[in-house]
Amino acid sequence: MHPINAKLHPNSPLNPGSVARMIADLQRENGDIPWHAGGKTDPWDLVESVMGLNIGGFHNQAMAALDWLATLQNENGSWYSSYMDSVPEDRTTESHMACYLAVGLFHQFLIKGDKADLEKFWPIMSKGVEFALGLQAATGEIYWAKSPEGKIDPMSLLSGASSIFMSLKCALAIAGILGRDRPEWKNALKRLGRSIRENIVTYNVSKSRFSMYWFYPILSGALQGRRAKARMDRYWHKYVIEGQGCRCVSDQPWVTIAETSELVLALHAMGRRQKAGIVFSWIHNRVFEDQTFWCGYTYPDMVVWPEDKISWTNAVVLMAADALYGLTPGARLFDHDAWDRCKFKF
User: Fold this and answer.
1) Within 10 Å of residue 284's Cβ, how many Cβ atoms?
2) DSSP secondary-structure letter at 234?
3) Is residue 345 part of a domain?
4) Where does residue 201 rank: exposed (0-12), middle (13-18), buried (19+ CB within 10 A)?
5) Boundaries of domain holding 102
6) Any idea what the Cα angle at residue 100 is, between residues 328 and 145, rounded to 5°?
7) What is the CA radius of gyration of the chain?
8) Taking the alpha carbons of 328, 333, 338, 342 in that order, is the dihedral positive or negative?
9) 108 CB burial (10 A radius; 0-12, 13-18, 19+)
């Protein structure tokens, strides 16, 4: 039995060791972790996979993935949107992808407690944060990307901005651990949070089909308390199929395991832990024979699609399980109360 399996609820069929092993088995010799066998890699989802590996105890594989990512960082601190066998596939550079490394690094520190990892990746993480903040507008929102030609796309995505909000919190926590003051990051975080809370109409509403648009501001902690409760309740029936899970997009009958697990994390983060456990129970049996999780399925047809075993989907299932069952010291990564009491104040 994997050592963290014993911490799960006795009625949970989740096998964290098997799930993390699947991610490790997808890893290439150079450290790259593609979406699936023969698939592409993007920097944001690779960091998700790293977090899954660390929850499962595959720390060497997690470090190898971060080392691979470091070798591909562009001079301006960005990464390309996707790679195929380490070759750029899409040369767009996205703000939220540039700084998400901070979340993976802080999560790894919570689990391992090794400051050397933070020191090693500090220059790389810092450059990524600076790239993202270079796309921040005067009103606080952060533009989503630069084109391959280097032209800024003056559009802001609420899910991407929320991810950056979480990344900045983690980057500042790391700065605090290492004794490095970054007042400009603190100011950027405040401006971004104010933008999400008070000027949400700035963000591209066409993306509101996607459930991430709904709950990412809560997951990141940009919205808390009364605001978080109101947003969660108002749109629940738009995105959630009771007894099944969370749709990827509101107008399609496609339940995705990743979005459902992230919804679990958001519910848990805002203090609705019983509801988080109920939602997680809906996907316990959405697995292949090896107990790794589907990417998604249609409802009520129950057609599994796609049939690939996805690295980052399984990683976020592990993150949800960790939040619910306290498998590792990283379990409270998204917890609003934990951040409010964070000793690395900013």
Assistant:
1) 15
2) H
3) no
4) exposed
5) 5-340
6) 160
7) 19
8) positive
9) buried
Residue 16, pLDDT score:
83
Identity of the residue numbered 158: L
* pLDDT at residue number 5: 53
Token duo for residue 10: 């006795």
With b for 16 or more beta-carbon neighbours within 10 A and e for fewer, the 70-107 pattern comes to bebbeeebbbbbbbeeeeeeeebbbbbbbbbbbbbbbb
State the CATH number of the domain containing residue 320.
1.50.10.10
* pLDDT, position 13: 59
Cα separation of 176 and 345, whole Å? 7
Beta strand ranges found along 16-128 (DSSP E): 80-84, 87-94
Residues of the chain with pLDDT under 70: 1-13, 343-346
In the numeric block, the tokens 């900045």 are attached to 168
The helix (H) or strand (E) run that includes residue 326 is none
Phi/psi zone of residue 94: left (φ > 0), alpha (ψ -120 to 50 degrees), beta? Answer: beta
- Count of the separate structural domains present in the chain: 1
Is 257:279 a contact under the CB 8 Å cutoff?
Answer: no
